[in-house]
C-alpha cells in the first residue's frame, strides 16, 4: 500500500461522496458528473488492488491481517458497482444520494485498510 | 364511507407524499445493504481467522450479519409478510445493539472481542444504533396498502 496514494484516494472518495449527496439532496438525478465521480472512486480502488498485489513483492509488506485487508478491499470494489447499477436502473434524485453514501462508505473502508496495512505492527 | 376515490381506489389526496417517503426509503435500504456487507465481511474474517478465540462473540457477529441481510431484503420487498419480517429483524437489531452495547460497557469481560454491536456500534460510527430507529420510523409510515383500510 502506497501511503500518499491512499490519502489521495481517501480525499477523492470523501469529495465525491459529499458532491453526490449534495447533488442528490438538491434534486439532481444521476448525471455524468455524479456517475463520473463514482467511477473515479472505483478506478482508484482497482489501482489500489494492483498496488496491494505488487507492493509486497518490493518489500512493502502489510503489518496487519491480509485476509481482513482484502475483505475490505473486495467489498469496497463491489460497492460503487452496486450503486452505479442502481443509479442506472432507478433514475431518481435518491439514487444520486445513494452514490454519495456509497462513496463515503468507501472512504471509511479505505481508511480502515490503511490502518490494517500500516498501524498495527505487533 | 363515500370518500372520493380515484380509479385505482387510492385516495387522491394521498398520492404525492408516499412517493417522497419511498425515495428516502431507498437510501435507507442502501445504507442497510452497506451495513449488511460490512457485518458479513467482518464476521467472515473473524470466523475464518480466529473463531477459536471467542466463539460466542463471533457467532453473534455472524447472526447479526444474517439479520441485517434479511432486514435489507425485507425492506426491498412489498407485501404484508415481508413487512412483518422487516419489523421482527429491525426490532431484533435494536434489541441486540441495546443489550450487547450495555453489556459491553457494564461488563467488558463478556465481550472481550468486538462485535457489530459492542459499545452501541462504535466501530461502525454508531450506525447500528441509529439505523433501527430510522427503519422503524419508516415502517410505521409505510404500512402495506393491501388488507387494511378497506373496512374504514
Give the proportion of residues in helices of chain A: over 70%
Give the oligomeric state of the chains in this entry, treating copies of one chain as homo and distinct chains as hetero: heterodimer
| Count of alpha/pi helices of chain A | 4
State the major sheet of chain B.
Answer: none
pLDDT averaged over residues of chain A: 91
Distance between the termini of chain B: 7 Å
H-E string of chain B: HHHH
Terminal-residue CA separation of chain A: 18 Å
- Return the structural class of chain B: mainly alpha
In total, the number of strands of chain A is 0
Topology:
The complex is a heterodimer of chains A (122) and B (152).
Chain A: H1 3-25, H2 32-54, H3 66-89, H4 93-118
Helix pairs in contact in A: 1-2, 1-4, 2-3, 2-4, 3-4
Chain B: H1 16-50, H2 55-76, H3 80-106, H4 127-141
Helix pairs in contact in B: 1-2, 1-4, 2-3, 3-4
Short account of what is shown:
Helix content of chain A is 79%, strand content 0%. Chain A has 122 residues and is mainly alpha-helical.
Give an overview of the whole structure.
- The complex is a heterodimer of chains A (about 120) and B (about 150).
- Chain A is mainly alpha-helical.
- Chain A has a domain at about 1-25 and about 65-120.
- Helices cover about 80% and strands about 0% of the residues of chain A.
- Chain A is built from four helices and no strands.
- Chain A starts with a helix and ends with a helix.
- Chain B has about 150 residues and is mainly alpha-helical.
- Helix content of chain B is about 65%, strand content about 0%.
- Chain B is built from four helices and no strands.
- In chain B, helix 3 packs antiparallel against helix 4.
- Chain B is elongated, with a radius of gyration of 19 Å.
